[in-house]
Amino acid sequence: MRLIDGLEADRLYSEMGPGVEMSGGSVANTMAGIASLGGRAGYIGLLRDDQLGQVFRHDITAVGVTYRVPAASAGPATARCLILVTPDAQRTMNTYLGACVELGPEHLDRALIESAQVLYLEGYLFDPPRAKAAIRAAAEIAHGAGRKVSLSLSDPFCVERHRADFRALIADHVDIVFANEIEIGSLYETGDFEAAARAAAHDCEIAVLTRSAKGSVVVAGAARHEIPAAPVPQVVDTTGAGDLYASGFLYGITYGRLLDVCGRLGSLCAAEIISHIGARPERPLKDLAAASGLL
Amino acid sequence: MRLIDGLEADRLYSEMGPGVEMSGGSVANTMAGIASLGGRAGYIGLLRDDQLGQVFRHDITAVGVTYRVPAASAGPATARCLILVTPDAQRTMNTYLGACVELGPEHLDRALIESAQVLYLEGYLFDPPRAKAAIRAAAEIAHGAGRKVSLSLSDPFCVERHRADFRALIADHVDIVFANEIEIGSLYETGDFEAAARAAAHDCEIAVLTRSAKGSVVVAGAARHEIPAAPVPQVVDTTGAGDLYASGFLYGITYGRLLDVCGRLGSLCAAEIISHIGARPERPLKDLAAASGLL
């Protein structure tokens, strides 16, 4: 993922082939996945009152996620990400943050955060200037209400840009960390996956580490669970794989499932999302999970 | 397909589940398919200068279709169609015509029409009030330049609404007619497919009649070609099947292929489009056609 400004977004779009527009956003994808599993989820993020903003609000509320933050009536346009997907299903994401740069502590919905069993934060929020304060404030609200705080490292480049901030947030506030093997290696500055996993397990109650086709590893204290990747007939677009893994895992955690089952729910949701273009489920995840005997 | 106004479009959208946005429009889909086959195509239609309009223009020009009509800077928004697809791949289309209601003869690009081997008209254009005059004017320009005129009947309900106009246009101006078996039966008010096919072949030089999974029939004078449907692993969404059949057929005609090959190109393009959501090709049709030995 690389950050681009509005001019670069226009230039790049003019060079791109025909596209398809769909709602996205890392945490929003995760919450949509939880709702698709039949869970309850809410979302906090900032839109402009433009057409992309209207579509985003439609899609996330239509799937059943609580989303109450009013759209900004001035300032930058709703964020967009221009995603290029290669025939081998890899993607390059070019993100124009737009209205997200205005996100600050004043947009937090205290009642919503206090009501949630788990707060889920995305590392991408270290990029917009005022969101770091919102992240910390949200984590404090959640912990003040006796809730869990979880964090996705989001992206290895993002970890490079904000390593010290990530480390500090994790040390102070994170109970459950989600990362892929490159991100966790970058965070702890090691190429040794096992060393990185140990460091994460030391810093957090639960470390959830995804390894693409090699599956995932969940470490909680001395317990370690190896979870295989769920089978996919054809990998079409890997966008959203981590987001939807988190959907399954967080759904499992909030419904009291064993860590192993949480991981298998994550693998199942990730497998659905990489089988088609886009990072929102095309089929009800609840049905897929039930068919796999995981609900 | 049913026509809806802006209020009904808003009401329906608020009741719909999460969606995906992509460019569409019957003739625009057909032209995008021709470009994807490696052919040359142009398009005439009216947009507003809003975001949907910008996306439409981006997508059709990015695939290589000539599109020069300026966007309207006032008046109704760019047209949209709210499409509901059932698990068995059938679709209901709810069309808000928007800026299309302003389309008139003044928007015709005479040089573009005169330069094209075949003019392709959609029956849907009988719905907006001023487009009928544009249809006739375009057909006269094409015939004046010694070109062929083709027409898709578009939709059985549309045929019901405008049967006399369709009959008159076909009698006066249409060399190649495209229709599915319901549309052609409605046009000639008969439930007997063979009788309808004979009537169409009498009125036009070539009648191209599609029959879903039963394949298609191409009748030209005394010659008759039965073309099987191309195999599809899973039919996901039938939106655009007729549009893309026309892409293959028109590409074949303009590159001097035998009618049987034109029909098989049509079947191949239709098979690609019904294998996924949306009415624009996901894979280059040129590659598919080459792999099938049809180019």
Brief digest:
The structure is a homodimer of 295-residue chains. Chain A has helices at 6-15, 26-36, 51-62, 110-115, 131-144, 156-161, 163-173, 181-187, 193-203, 241-254, 259-273, 285-291; strands at 2-3, 42-43, 66-67, 80-85, 91-96, 118-122, 148-152, 176-180, 206-210, 216-220, 223-227.
- Quickly count the helices of chain A: 12
State the end-to-end CA separation of chain A. 34 Å
Fraction of helical residues of chain A: 40-55%
Mean of all residue-level pLDDT scores of chain A: 96
Strand content of chain A: 15-25%
Explain what you see.
Two copies of one chain form a homodimer. Chain A is built from twelve helices and eleven strands. In chain A, α5 links the parallel β6 and β7. The longest helix of chain A has 15 residues, at 259-273. In chain A, α8 crosses α9 and α10 packs antiparallel against α11 (259-273). By secondary structure, chain A is of the alpha/beta class. Chain A binds chain B through residues 13-14, 16-23, 32, 50-52, 55, 58-60, 62-63, 277-278, 280, 282, and chain B through 13-14, 16-23, 32, 50-52, 55, 58-60, 62-63, 277-278, 280, 282.
